[in-house]
Amino acid sequence: MKATEVPEITGAYLFEPTPYADERGFFCRTFDADVVRSVGLDPDAFVQDSLSRSVRGVLRGLHLRSGAGEAKLVRCSYGRIFDVVVDLRPDSPTYLGRASFELSGETQTTLYVPAGCAHGFQALTETADTSYRIDRPHDPAEDVTIAFDDPELAIPWPLPVTSMSQRDREAPSLAEVLKHKES
C-alpha cells in the first residue's frame, strides 16, 4: 500500500493498495496502520465505521462537521463513485481548494479527508457501496451541509442527480455557510 498526498488539499491523502489478483478474483489490504502512521496520521484515532449504498445518480453531500470537525477515510468498496473534497479550513494554504477523484471497488483506493473539509460523492454505477472510517462519534447537531450545485464551487458532477436527501436538496450556499461560520 502506498500513500500519495493530494496537492489541491493540504493534509489529504490517497491510500492505494496493492491487489493480488488470480483466477479467483483479488485480495488487498484496505487499511494499514503503519502506512497511515507514515504520513503523520494516528491510525487509532478512528472510532466508527459506516457504510452507505447508493444507486446510479444518487448524490450525497457536500457534508462536514462543525466544532472540532471530523476526519475520515472514504473508500468505494463496490461500484464506482465521483468523490469531491473542498477545503474549508481558513488557515489552510489550500483554503477553498477542490479536488475530485473516481473511487472504485476495482482499485479499493481510500481517500483521507481532513477535518474541516467538506465531502460529497455521486454514485456512477447501478450499485455503489461507500465505506467511511470516522475519527469522532457522529453528532447530528454538528452536521453542516453545503449546496452541491453552488456556483462558486462549480463542481462538475458527471451525471444528472437522480436522488438526494431533503437536507442536501435544501442546503445553503457556500457563502451562507461561511458567513454563519464567522459569526
Automatic annotation (TrEMBL):
EC id: 5.1.3.13
Catalytic activity: dTDP-4-dehydro-6-deoxy-alpha-D-glucose = dTDP-4-dehydro-beta-L-rhamnose
Record GO terms (molecular function): dTDP-4-dehydrorhamnose 3,5-epimerase activity
Family annotation (CDD domains): cupin_RmlC
This protein's UniProt keywords: Isomerase
Pathway the protein contributes to: Carbohydrate biosynthesis; dTDP-L-rhamnose biosynthesis
Similarity annotation: Belongs to the dTDP-4-dehydrorhamnose 3,5-epimerase family.
Subunit field text: Homodimer.
Function according to Swiss-Prot or TrEMBL: Catalyzes the epimerization of the C3' and C5'positions of dTDP-6-deoxy-D-xylo-4-hexulose, forming dTDP-6-deoxy-L-lyxo-4-hexulose.
Protein name: dTDP-4-dehydrorhamnose 3,5-epimerase
Naturally occurring in which organism (per UniProt): Streptomyces atrovirens
Recorded name of the encoding gene: rfbC
